[in-house]
């Protein structure tokens, strides 16, 4: 049984301008334990796809089936922390909302290198540290499915690189099923088991790459660069 099944979905937005048919008969499956990266030009429907999986949007036609949809971990481009509560409490609140005991929160804060900041307010943290809290919060709810929407694209290159490697480490220690939306072909190649390329309007799955390289992976691995290069060629 697949962890996520999008089966011939249609999705049309009737907003301010002309109606937008973002999906028309679009299908995608994510298998248990698989991390699928979704890349594609701006406006192709990547975030809409994540919203459909998260249940934040409903398809007009077709079906979205998510195994254990009740336990989602989500990381967005912005950390979306509660600025008026300390770091540890930010994570604890999410854990409590998921109905879990908060005993493991310090362990995950330690894993993201922020245990010493547990009692501090998010406002004293750097952008990269705040995003680490967001990553810790997402893992702390022990999600059945992790949804990542451009999680590192608001960070500078070096901080983004560190966080990608951190995510890879966390994923190795706590294997999950996930969908990663990214503009960054190198990030997709580094982190994903499979990269799907969306293009066109309505969006179609125009290419698909299986990244069959052992982990931990290094951003310097020439084999990864080869995948990266092929994805870039699809996007330009
Ligand atoms: N709630 C909405 N109401 C109206 N139109 C929407 C809505 N959400 C998305 N759209 C439209 O659907 C299309 C796909 O948007 P979406 O955000 O999914 O694309 P994307 O691939 O994630 O883009 P980007 O890479 O720029 O974030 C866009 O044309 C957008 O304007």
Automatic annotation (TrEMBL):
Gene3D superfamilies: P-loop containing nucleotide triphosphate hydrolases. The keyword ATP-binding applies. InterPro entries: AAA+_ATPase (IPR003593), ABC_transporter-like_ATP-bd (IPR003439), ABC_transporter-like_CS (IPR017871), ABC_transporter_ATP-bind (IPR050166), P-loop_NTPase (IPR027417). GO terms for molecular function: ATP binding; ATP hydrolysis activity. Residues 4-225 form the ABC transporter domain. It holds the Pfam family ABC_tran. This is ABC transporter ATP-binding protein.
């Amino acid at each position: 049984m697949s962890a996520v099944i999008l089966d011939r979905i249609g999705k049309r937005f009737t907003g301010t301008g002309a109606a937008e048919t973002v999906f028309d008969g679009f299908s995608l499956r994510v298998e248990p334990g698989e991390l699928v990266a979704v890349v594609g030009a701006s406006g192709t429907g990547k975030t809409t796809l994540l919203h459909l999986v998260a249940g934040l949007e409903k398809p007009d036609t077709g079906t979205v089936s998510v195994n254990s949809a009740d336990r989602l971990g989500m990381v967005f481009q912005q950390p979306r922390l509660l600025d008026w509560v300390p770091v540890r409490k930010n994570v604890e609140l999410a854990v409590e909302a998921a109905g879990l005991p908060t005993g493991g929160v310090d362990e995950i804060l330690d894993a993201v290198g922020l245990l010493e900041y547990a009692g501090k307010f998010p406002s004293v943290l750097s952008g990269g540290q705040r995003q680490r809290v967001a990553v810790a919060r997402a893992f702390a709810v022990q999600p059945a499915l992790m949804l990542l929407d451009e999680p590192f694209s608001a960070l500078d290159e070096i901080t983004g690189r560190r966080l990608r490697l951190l995510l890879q480490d966390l994923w190795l220690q706590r294997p999950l099923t996930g969908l990663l939306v990214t503009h960054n072909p190198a990030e997709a190649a580094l982190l994903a088991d499979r990269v799907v390329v969306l293009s066109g309007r309505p969006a179609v799955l125009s290419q698909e790459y299986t990244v069959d390289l052992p982990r931990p992976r290094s951003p310097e691995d020439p084999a990864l660069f080869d995948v990266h290069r092929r994805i870039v060629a699809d996007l330009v």
